[in-house]
Structure formats: C-alpha cells, structure tokens
Amino acid sequence: MKIDAGSEKPIFVQIAEQIEDSVFTGVFQEEEKIPSTNEIAVLLNINPHTVLKGMNRLVEEGIIYKRRGLGMFVQAGAVEKIRTKRRDAFFQQYVASMIQEAEKLGMTKDQVIAMVERGYEDERN
Predict the structure, then answer these.
(1) N or C terminus of the chain: which is more exposed, having fewer CB within 10 Å?
(2) pLDDT tens-place string over residues 5-33
(3) What is the DSSP annotation of 24-71?
(4) DSSP of 79-110, one letter per residue?
C-alpha cells in the first residue's frame, strides 16, 4: 500500500480504495482476515483513526466486516459487489459521457458502436 500525500483525495479514501482493489484482484480472499488498523497505520506511518475511517467505509459498503476480538475480514460476495460498483461507475464515467458527446457530434448509435469495435481491434493489434 502506498499513500499519495499530495493527492486531493483524502488519505482514508485512498486506503479504502487500495483495500478494495486488493480484494478485487484476489490479494485478500473472501472470508480472509485483512491486516489490522494498527498494522496498516504502522506500515504507512499514519494515524490509526485514518485507517479505521477507510475501513469503516468498506464495512458500510459490505466489502469487509468486523469479528469482535479477531479483526476485519473480507465479506463473502465482496468481489461481486465491487464488480457491480465498478461497472456502474464505468458506465457513468465513460459510457454515459461518451454517448452525450456522440449526440453533440451528431453520431448515430451504429457509428459509436463501430468506433468502440475499432478500439478493440486496435488494442489487440
């Protein structure tokens, strides 16, 4: 884990995103214990409360949960929740804005689809 102190993104958000990404990529498996608040705080040399704030965000989203006296664990089904969340964000950030721009340019649906297909072909070559 690395924190970008110069980022406009709050540190607790960076922590939450990095833990989430570790779950999504399989670094932390579902039902597996993740590093403690204190372990992450020492590793990153930051306040444990900041780490806890990031973890609590993931608890609220159903990505991790706390077992009293044992620590934080990855929730069963967390990977699928993250995938759904990221697909929704992808749609809003890229697809919806692409369609809005295409409409401004007077492009048809078929023209947009053709451009996307061309992008896939270019990427594979």
Answers:
(1) C
(2) 899 999 999 999 999 999 999 999 999 99
(3) HTTSS-TT-B---HHHHHHHHTS-HHHHHHHHHHHHHTTSEEEETTTE
(4) HHHHHHHHHHHHIIIIIIHHHHHHHHTT--HH
Q: How confident is the model at residue 1 (pLDDT cuts 50, 70, 90)?
A: confident
Burial class (CB in 10 A: 0-12, 13-18, 19+), 123: exposed
Q: Report how far residue 124's alpha carbon sits from residue 15's, in angstroms, rounded to the nearest whole number.
A: 33
Q: Is 118 exposed, middle or buried (0-12, 13-18, 19+ CB in 10 A)?
A: exposed
Contact in structure between 3 and 40 (CB atoms under 8 Å): no
pTM of the model: 0.82
Two tokens, residue 102: 């295409």
